[in-house]
Design goal:
Elements (H helix, E strand, L loop, with lengths): L2 E5 L4 H10 L4 E6 L9 E5 L5 H8 L4 E4 L9 H21 L4 E7 L23 H20 L2 E7 L1 E2 L6 H6 E2 L1 H13 L5 E6 L11 H5 L9 H9 L6 H5 L20 H13 L13
Parallel strand pairs: 1-2, 1-4, 2-3, 4-5, 5-6, 6-9, 7-8
The structure holds nicotinamide-adenine-dinucleotide.
Nicotinamide-adenine-dinucleotide (NAD) binds next to helix 1, helix 3, strand 5 and strand 7.
Length: about 290
């Protein structure tokens, strides 16, 4: 059985994937907050912004599913540390430890400034909609470099939104169910011919903005379609900011910075986050909850 390192395993996507992939792989979970491994899992605590931690975490694994990082728009210092330095450390540690395959959780926000009336594929020029989107583009570029220079096998998944059900009109176009996400991840781990690929992490949504033919080529056959939830979602939808409604990235295109909605484990961590936010040099800090 393959051993797979999952960074950021304590987050939303990691929690879905742990459940979906249980029994198929030996999962080595990693996060900077403490996690309790279940049967078939091990845990290595580590901060991705520290290369020494990543050298330890990546040792001896068959592939890495890199989820760890700052997962919404935010202050530059936070994004720099987790998504730029952290992402570099994961690729560099993998390379030094001879781990060839990395699945990188990039985002629809790498291309969020495409209009909603455009269908885009994996070859379009990048159009990030914020610092977070730029950090995902950085990760994709790093993946391309490590594939070409070091022969690594890099599978970049531009994830829409992973959830049991789509929660608003935008998500009807970008939603991915946990089981479809797991199918995509399995392809990323198992496909024999990955060099450098970009695919969209979306279900088979009728309202999709993506031509996901590259994922289809690699065998992806998503089972779910957000349309089953459309009537219910649209009935409760309220009109939003016209800029958000125009672009695929939604509120990310106009919100300067948002609080990270990821659950913080302890009061101390919450206090630290509040302090960071207060210190942020970002102007027009918006307290709206982050929406991927
Ligand atoms: N959730 C989605 O629908 C979605 C959509 C697009 C892209 N993504 C990407 O997928 C990945 C996972 O998303 P998520 O929703 O699970 O995010 P999340 O915020 O819920 O989880 C991120 C995890 O990373 C950990 N982390 C943060 N900084 C770290 C550090 N320096 N060292 C070690 N661990 C650290 C956090 O503790 C957390 O458990 C992220 O990279 C995100 O950008 C997610």
């Amino acid at each position: 059985m393959k051993t797979i390192l999952m960074t950021g395993a304590g987050g939303g996507v990691g929690t879905h994937l742990r459940r979906e992939l249980a029994g198929r792989y030996s999962l080595r979970l990693s996060d900077y907050r403490k996690l309790k491994p279940a049967k078939g899992e091990t845990f290595v605590q580590g901060d991705i912004s520290k290369i020494s931690d990543m050298l330890r975490a990546t040792k001896g694994v068959d592939a890495i599913v890199h989820l760890g990082g700052y997962s919404v728009e935010g202050a530059w210092d936070d994004i720099l540390s987790a998504n730029i330095i952290g992402c570099y450390n994961v690729f560099e540690a993998a390379q030094r430890n001879g781990v060839k395959r990395i699945l990188f959780a990039t985002s629809n926000h790498a291309v969020g400034f495409y209009r909603r009336d455009h269908v885009i594929d994996h070859r379009v020029y990048i159009k990030p909609d914020g610092r977070y989107g730029v950090s995902k583009v950085f990760g994709e570029a790093l993946g391309s470099l490590y594939a070409d220079k070091y022969g690594m096998e890099v599978f970049c998944m531009r994830i829409g939104n992973v959830n049991d059900a789509p929660i608003d009109k935008r998500r009807l176009s970008i939603w991915i169910s946990p089981r479809d996400m797991a199918q995509l991840v399995t392809i990323g781990i198992e496909h024999p011919e990955i060099r450098f690929e970009i695919v969209y992490g979306v279900s088979n949504n009728r309202r999709s903005w993506y031509d996901n033919s590259n994922a289809t080529r690699l065998g992806y056959r998503p089972q779910d379609d957000s349309e089953a939830f459309a009537a219910e979602v649209l009935a409760r939808e309220k009109p939003g900011d016209p800029r958000a409604e125009t672009y695929q990235g939604g509120t990310f295109v106009h919100v300067e910075a948002v609080e990270n909605p990821a659950p913080l484990p302890q009061r101390r961590a919450r206090k630290a986050a509040a302090k960071r936010t207060a210190k942020s040099k970002v102007t027009g800090l918006n307290k709206a909850r982050g929406r991927r």
